[in-house]
Structure formats: structure tokens, C-alpha cells
Target: Fatty acid hydroxylase domain-containing protein
Amino acid sequence: MVAPLSAWPWEHLGIFKYILYGPLAAKAWYSWMYEDNILKDLWCIHILLICTLRGFIHQLWSSYNSMFFLTRNRWIKQQEPLYYWAHRLFHKPYLFNHYHSLHHSSPVPHPFTAGHATPLEHLVLCTVIGIPITGSILMGYGSTAMIYGHVLVFDFFRCLGHSNAEVVPHEVFNKLPLLRYFIYTPTYHSLHHTEMETNFSMHAPFALRSFASTPFCMRMFLLPFWPLTFMIMLVMWGWSKTFLFSFYNLRGRLHQTWVVPRFGFQYFLPFATKGINRHIEEAILRADRLGVKVISLAALNKNEALNGGGTLFVNKHPELKVRVVHGNTLTAAVILNEFSKDVKEVFLTGATSKLGRATALYLCRKRVRVLMLTSSTERFQKILKEAPVDCQNYLVQVTKYQAAQNCKTWIVGKWITPWEQSWAPSGTHFHQFVVPPILPIRRDCTYGDLAAMRLPPDVEGLGSCEYTMERGVVHACHAGGVVHQLEGWSHHEVGAIDVDRIDLVWEAALKHGLKPVSSVNN
Model:
């Protein structure tokens, strides 16, 4: 039997749960529009406003949690004995198993973890918050500002404790050891999540979810924050260095995601490429000094036009001990293993790219006819010469989409418009390795996902999602770096894809428990 108040009644409503605020908003709007005395329904506005502000505090801390390129010092003093004893009570076996274990289910603390709790816990925390407020009101010192201030400061402290990004430099505690007994820090509360039976002190929550813990999607209500994002982008462009974003552990090895502080469009600005390569080079050299075994170049950081898929750095620093990997061999393997064995012809866009070349050469060896869309005869001929002589007739250069109007297997390596998609016959399946993915506008066709793999089940500490992937799923090139490390390979994987290694890398990935994730394999 489910314990009472251990689940939210609107748990399965998803984003539609916010409709529950509708009656309050409607009541406030009606009073403002049609009644003379708006003050009588002011409580509706206060509830809406305080909920919005509490959510905003969580979001600000969440943003700070991801901005490791910033350094800030904040001093937070500790209080709330009521919270201490309530928290300690929830660690008793029955209450922990039926209620508080939900809060501790977050493997990596995050500001939104502060509010990840059951209804009973929130009721208790509301009581803890409300007692000082009620006491102040009864003594004649209550005010609207006091209520707002107490609740929001309470949330501020809770988010700080769960931020998983230290805000007080450790040098402070080295010089003043006694301060560790008076200052509440993320490290202090992180120990509680690790050891369970220590560090119970500190504050309260609100139930929201981190955007980083869910797959990326467009959220229109964030549009007003674009000017702020633009300003942050300029700051990062001018002063930021490569920084740590997330991490996880797999079989005793620490895997980290480092972020080059550049937005996607900047990779296509000719004057910005030198600076981007400098950031990547510094990250590689830093990894080498730290004794890192493998460093993967993700997304646009391995662009052929930018650095030759990593070749630039390997040639410049031949003494590197860290292995530089673009991971695209596994990307090609995932795409190629989506095909059914009865496919005899495919249409390939982005045909002369790194992945396009490898795909074409692999398929022609399997006696699959490849219609390679490219206007460059020179690049087509170069790829053609790499194919075995008895397989070259399976590679066909085409220059128009009309050539594929009878082909039901499209491999999209270059973004195509809805009009270009219209040439595909009904029943076509679009495989793709293009970012961003193409628009799925054809109802009579199917669309594959970006090449991705699910990490092995023994992975630990996953705290965020990778782009549009669900948690635990990573792009195939990311998985390629993981496989490179697990196998202990000593070669660099840069430049052109070695077609002879595609099957080898695929089998290694499956051996280590990685599984392909796509609409075809599901």
C-alpha cells in the first residue's frame, strides 16, 4: 500500500500541472477588471507572486550551478533548529523509505533537488517556515515584506546547499578553521547526501525540475531571458575559459564534460576560429598535464574546417600522452547498423563529409548502391578511388534531389529543407547525422534520431541530459570516447574515419554494455 502523502496528485500532468494556478490568476484578473475593491483578492496575487519568485530563485541557482566559468564568494550563516530536527526525523527508517528517499534519489545534488520531495515533506517544511512568520505576526511585527523575505531567503539557502558548486573558497577555512561551524556550504550538505547520517542542518524547498535534468527543447516562456543570455555570451566570449559542466563515474573512471565557452554560430565566424582552436588546444594540453587518458572532441569542436577533426592538435603536439578522439567511427557504426539487411540503395547528403565518406565506402563494400549528392566531381572521385575496384560501380554521383525520388532510404548528413524532403517517395525513412536534426514534416515518412547510445547500467552520478537525449543517453561520438577509454586503445582517432575499424568499434561498444538508441533500434 502506498504511504499517504507520498505522491503528488498531479504527478502525471507534466507541464499541464501549472494550469492549477489558473483559478488564482482568473480570480485576481476578475477583481482587477470588474470589482472596485481589488484588495480583497490580493491574496491571490501574493500566492502567484511568491510562487513565481521561489521558482526564479531556484532557476537562478540552477544557472549559477552551470556557470563554472564564474567565481563568486558568498557567506551564508546557519540557523533553523526546527528544520534540523524535522530533517533528522525523516531519516528514521519508515519515513525515509516511504518519503525522504525520493529526495535522496538525485545522484548529484542540484538546486532543484532542494524541492524534489513528497507532499508530506513539503507540508512539514511549510510548517517550519510558517512558525517564525506566525510568531512575528502574533507579536505585532508581521509585514508583507517580512513574509516574502523569510520565505525567499529560506529557499535561497536551500538552493545554495544543493548547488554542488562551492561558493566559499577553501582557503577561508584553512585560515579560519572555526568558520566551518558557522558557515553553511554546498560541501557541507553534499556530505549529507553522501553519508546520510551527518550534516542535517539547514533549510527548505519548492518542487521544480532542473532544465539540465530534462532533454533540451524550446521553452517559449524563457524568451524574455534572451537579452540576458546575449550579455552572458559576450562576457564568456571576452573573458571565459574552458570550464567543467558535468561529470559521471563509470567503472572506476571519472568522465567529465568540459565546455568551450562559445555558442554554435560562433564556430562559423571566420575571425573566431583561431580563438576556438586556442581554447581546444589549451584544454587538450591541460588534460595531458592532469594525466587524462582520453579527450573527446564533441559537436563542432571536431569540425573538419576548424581543425581537421583534431588533426591540427595531434600534428602540432606529437608528444601528447592523452589520446585525442573525435568518436565518429562509432557514430558511423550506429548509423550503419540501423539499416535492414535488405536495403539495396540509399541516398546520401553530405556525401563528401567525414561521416558521409565513411558511410559511402562501408556500404559499397556491402554491395549497396549509394547515390552520393555532391556537386564536386573532384571530391567524389577522391572517395571513389578509395573504394575497392570491384565495388566502385556502387558509388554514383548525383547533383539533384530528384535523383532520389524512387529511393526510400535517405541518409541526411547535410540539413535539407522541407521542399528538398518532398522529393522522397512515400514511406521513406530519413536516417540522419546532421545537427540540428531536420524538421519532420512528412507524415507519410519516418525520421530517425541522431546517432546515440545508452551508457552501461553501472554508470554513476549522471546529473544532466545531453542536448535532446534523455538522461543516460549520449551522442555516439561521446560514446566513442568512452569505448576508446574502456578498451585502452593507444592511438589517436582524428581526421578521416578508418572504415576498417567501424565493425571493430561497434563490437567493442556492445561488449562494454553500451546500447544503440534510435527509432529503428527501439
Remarks:
- Residues 42-66 form the longest helix (25 residues).
- Residues 11-213 form one domain.
- The longest strand covers residues 243-250.
